[in-house]
Amino acid sequence: GESVGLHLPTLSVQEGDNSIINCAYSNSASDYFIWYKQESGKGPQFIIDIRSNMDKRQGQRVTVLLNKTVKHLSLQIAATQPGDSAVYFCAETLPSGANSKLTFGKGITLSVRP
Amino acid sequence: NAGVTQTPKFQVLKTGQSMTLQCAQDMNHEYMSWYRQDPGMGLRLIHYSVGAGITDQGEVPNGYNVSRSTTEDFPLRLLSAAPSQTSVYFCASSYSGQGNNSPLHFGNGTRLTVT
Question: Cβ distance A4 to A104 under 8 Å?
């Protein structure tokens, strides 16, 4: 079946380096993608989103890239800080845009080394 | 704004007991939903509501009931708790359940253990 998934279960980076978290999606009909961050003991927190009519979107220290050709989504975090340590989820939804159709990946842990 | 508030934060139940997980939001969001999060399973949708008086089933609705009598509140009821319902439960809301500009806002979860 079709699903949203992440390539790596854990990612360890040095403080100050850039982080890249990857996500593959298999439903070519998906047109809206979201990244969430979940810190220990807390609920997921919205980071950034992107529509399928865009290839790139930037926020504060974060950039999301969408490659529709290979159905790949990535989250780039610049100058990674200890506070960035968390589990990161990608999510996708279909053109209906219904949040009830949102599909979440299983998550990847980002660990920042001091 | 407090955002999405869930109570209690922790709960232990015995098999067969019932309880209600509370969720309230103060952002005037129309859409509210309940997810459960289990290791290796990701977030799975239990029930959702697109507005007061309207509820619908998600991916894993069995064993749970919901109601939406007001815009602010969306309680989740476990009718007869089972060990398989041991999980972390998240309530989430968004301005609209439709459309691509309504990211979900999550509460901090209720950690439920059923023995």
Answer: yes
Angle at B38 between CA B63 and CA A83, to 5 degrees: 135
> d(Cα B37, Cα B32) in Å, to the nearest integer?
16
Segment 50-79 of chain A within 8 Å of chain B by CB: 51
Mutation target among A6, A96, A100 for the B interface, most CBs of B within 10 A: A100
Rg (CA), chain B: 13
Q: Tokens 């969408």 appear where?
A: A66
Q: Do A99 and B102 touch (CB under 8 A)?
A: yes
CB nearest A34 (choices: B41, B42, B103): B103
B24 backbone dihedrals φ, ψ, rounded to 5°: -140, 145
Chain B residues with CB-CB distance to A86 below 8 A: none
Predicted local confidence at residue B42, as pLDDT: 83
B43 — contact with chain A (CB < 8 Å)? yes
Q: B44-103 pLDDT, tens per residue?
A: 999 999 999 999 999 999 999 999 999 999 999 999 999 999 999 999 999 876 665 688
Can you tell me which residue has the tokens 């200890």?
A82
Identity of the residue in B42, B97, B107 whose CB atom sits nearest the CB atom of A99: B97
